[in-house]
Amino acid sequence: MADAITKKQASVARSKPKLAVWKFSSCDGCQLSLLDCEEELLAVAGAVEIANFPEASRTVVKGPYDLSLVEGSITTPHDAERIHQVRRVSKHLVTIGACATAGGIQALRNFKDVREFIAVVYATPSYIETLNKSTPIADHVFVDFELRGCPINKLQLVEVISAILNHRKPNVPRYSVCLECKRRATVCVMVAQGVPCLGPVTQAGCGALCPAYDRGCYACFGPKETPNTESLSTRWAQMGVSQTGLVRAFRGFNAYAEAFRKESEAHEGRLAGA
Amino acid sequence: MKTKTIKVDYLARVEGEGALFVKIKDNAVSEVKFRIFEPPRFFEAFLRGRHYSEAPDITARICGICPIAYQMSSVHAMEDAFGVTLNGGLRALRRLLYCGEWIESHVLHVYLLHAPDFLGYEDAIQMAKDHPAAVQRGLQLKKIGNDLVTLLGGREIHPINVRVGGFYKAPERAELEKLAEKLKWARDAALATIEWSATLDYPDFEQDYEFVALRHPEEYPFNEGRLVSNKGLDIAVRDYENHFVEEHMQHSNALHSLLRARGAYFVGPLARYNLNFDRLTPLAQEAALSAGLGRECRNPFKSIIVRSVETLYACEEALRLIAAYEKPASPAVSLHARAGIGYGCTEAPRGILYHRYRLDDRGMIHDAKIVPPTSQNQKTIESDLRRFVAGHLDLSHEQLTWQCEQAIRNYDPCISCATHFLKLEVVRE
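Above: the input entities. Below: the structure tokens describing the complete assembly.
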């Protein structure tokens, strides 16, 4: 009898969707979001089988996995291979965070010669194996959904996990931070205080945090759908921001996201032309 | 001749990517490598040409687990370069923010990463089935640390409110008072954590370490102090590079840090505790002594108790700071960029975190140097493993592997910071 119950429990456990978390080049902050779901963590752990999540567990359950969450960007030849293995064992693959969706802050190397960077940091550059560019996961394999943010919003993460496992589209908005500011009734820092803000071209998701703390948005959620970066740059320039200031503003945590990369390169081009 | 290898290809329950390789030949340890293979991310290189005001947001991204530490070391270094010191409410708010980070980071480590080793579970979720009250207490306590960081910083990971010169916005007294109620519960939960951690089984393993930590005239150290050790070091932060040097080892993407005079040293909670016991609150001292820690503790496996003691200290210090809080007239002091070099060193949960920046008169960064705690502890981690394995050759391969992993987890290594992760490999010859 006891045996039968154990077997039944085991089969229930097996039927739970398998969740895996993978790390590439990153700060670990996005996967930490899962552990920061203090109130939801045990519920999530009850609803899925945590099959591979090295930051939290020594357990490694063999794939295939129903859902793989991928953090970090591709920066080494080894990782460029490994992401294909991850894709092969994953039914659904969701990238989490600015590194995985846009190359992250480490993509700042993409605008320079990486050999110079190695020489600045390491005494023996020959020991270091790295690619010239830091690239997002979608440059390498098919990605089912990209969750933005540096870091991601943990409530959005819970929504995405739940949506994917229930075969529906995640409810994650692509509109700008400005809408969140309005909803929060924060007075526009750019209009009222003359503080440069990237909110108009940045995707919502953080809850319009920076303006609520009296500072301009620095675009940690990356470009919104169809951003008008050029128009915003014009406004920033009228407010006294220099060309180099504009290059730096667009070269943050999502520097290699296409809209931001193009805008920063346009201002760099103007600098070179001047 | 018999060779045996202990090999852990990807160390679990640490932050980042690392591996361990131990080779045993003729019943003696012949080789130990604690390998960090987290890919290099080049922060020091791309900080060049950025404005000083961007450093706290950029350096926070080195680590998602201890972003406050990076923000604190960077703002203090910049202020040092500009000749500015923060006092009063702004200084208190920075201490309060650090209390939040210590609570959430220490509790994450104690309950979710470290305790499962002592109790024989693969993770805290499995542990929760048999020890639900303990895990729930841990999660709740961790949440209060996160709540404090969120209130002062905007969010728990990569907070947005820290700036050179202070904050973008200072909280209201009433907002902090609301949190004080939760912190009183947290103080009791931290006490219970100390008692609970004291009941775990500890291997008999004491070493003669050189402990290095900050020391402040009055306080348990967070942001300020002189760098001291139990073997005679006593220097100002700006002299750090005269006494410490980094080596680039082939087997690790993280640089190894050494004391020029004596080699390996040990930073983090155990170092702070041994060098600053007298600066703890009376309650924290009493709880530590009741837990059997003693005034000095040289057993790295007991770092879990020390983290619990520091969690209690952080709760008490947060309550004291909130009780004394008066909202500053302005959230930040005014600054004038000037050319120069700034030095900063603060106590991250894992130990001292050193930053140095050279700036021009427009406040642009010309070069940066960042030495995180895990790279400073790497040599000591390796020497611990060497001695620990030598004393436990009778253990089964599986047991020895797990204990080696635990010996590394004692340090709560943050490999993302040091650059990242652990594999364990033991070869027996």
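Note for the figure: Confidence is low (pLDDT under 50) at residues 1-5 of chain A.
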